[in-house]
Amino acid sequence: MSSPKRLRLDEIGYWSEVKLDIIRRYASAYSTILSAQTSPPFHHVYIDAFAGAGQHVLKDSGATVEGSPLIAVTTQPPFKEYHFIDLNEVKVDNLKTLLAGYPNVTIYHGDCNRVLLDKVFPQVQFSDYRRGLCLLDPYGLHLNWEVIRMAGESKTLDVFLNFPIADMNRNVFWRNPDGVDVRDVARMDAFWGGQSWRSVAYTKVPTLFGDEDEKTDNEYIAAAFRERLMKKAGFANVPEPIPMRNRTGAIVYYLFFASPRPVAQKIVSEIFDTYRNCGGK
To answer: Which residues make beta-bridge pairs with 65?
Structure first.
């Protein structure tokens, strides 16, 4: 008989703490604004597609800190309901234990790409005066463009999105594109929503032996994705993303925000600017 799987909390560093603080600050502002709406009243929900165990461990101190689900359920004024999703059964079980005393919480064990499209997003309809704040924070290229597109087209969702540039650089954007594993190419296609990323990630450079592919820089790729969020997914307001770094200052991912509302962009831009020039930690 195999032994039961043990829970291992994710270790996080400085920039992950920054991300959690950004979520905390915006969730409070968002819930305050939506709770104050009375004509008509709005039913606002919180959605976390990669919710995890609900807790993290700080790399520097080893202390246990609350993750985004605990931040969400303790936000004041409260959201009307909460939806948390994760593929890891052990983490889901821990999350259920942590949130057992909180009302209006639904926890799903499964692939968020299906759960969001089939079960959660259909509950947040514009015509029903429902609105939502959605956190799409994958560990890598584990999110499908269809989820992003539906969120944008709904006109009901504000979204924080992890753009995992480190996973892309490590597994997809190679000097020799032909050598990339077809499975990683498929993951990239699914995240981007097609193969147009190829013309963004590479430029032709003339050499003595003919034109060769050269990777464009991270900022150019992130800017192209920002344009894609606006023109292809239909988000009207997408501020410049904030780069999240590791200990050496290298960019691990970009944190995007996208919304149908200009006031949301204004609030998040001010929050982003608080941290944008902090430097690596």
So the answer is: 56
pLDDT tens-place string over residues 6-30: 888 888 888 889 999 999 999 999 9
Residue 111, pLDDT > 50, answer yes
User: How far are the Cα atoms of 56, 151, 217, 263 from residue 107, in angstroms, in the given order?
Assistant: 18, 20, 38, 30
d(CA 218, CA 113): 26
Question: In angstroms, rounded to a whole number, what is the distance separating the alpha carbons of residues 219 and 200?
Answer: 11
Residue 46's alpha-carbon distances to 49, 75, 96, in angstroms, are 10, 10, 16
C-alpha 57: how far from chain center: 20
Residue pair 17/61 in contact by the 8 Å Cβ criterion: no
Q: Give every CB contact of residue 188 below 8 A, 6+ residues apart in sequence.
A: 141, 168, 172, 197
Question: Model pTM?
Answer: 0.93
Query: H helices within 57-181, ranges in order?
Result: 68-73, 89-98, 112-115, 145-154, 165-171
Calpha distance 247→279 (Å, rounded): 10
Amino acid at residue number 261: R
Compute the distance between CA of residue 142 and CA of residue 148 in angstroms, rounded to an integer: 12
- DSSP single-letter state for residue 99: T
Ramachandran angles phi, psi of 95, nearest 5°: -65, -40
Domains located in the chain, CATH noted: 10-164+232-275 (3.40.50.150)
Q: Using alpha carbons, list the distances in angstroms from residue 189 to 59, 120, 203.
A: 33, 24, 18
Q: For residues 16 and 281, what is the distance between their CA atoms, to the nearest angstrom?
A: 11
Contact indicator for 112, 148 with CB cutoff of 8 Å? no
| Helix (H) or strand (E) segment spanning residue 267 | helix 262-275
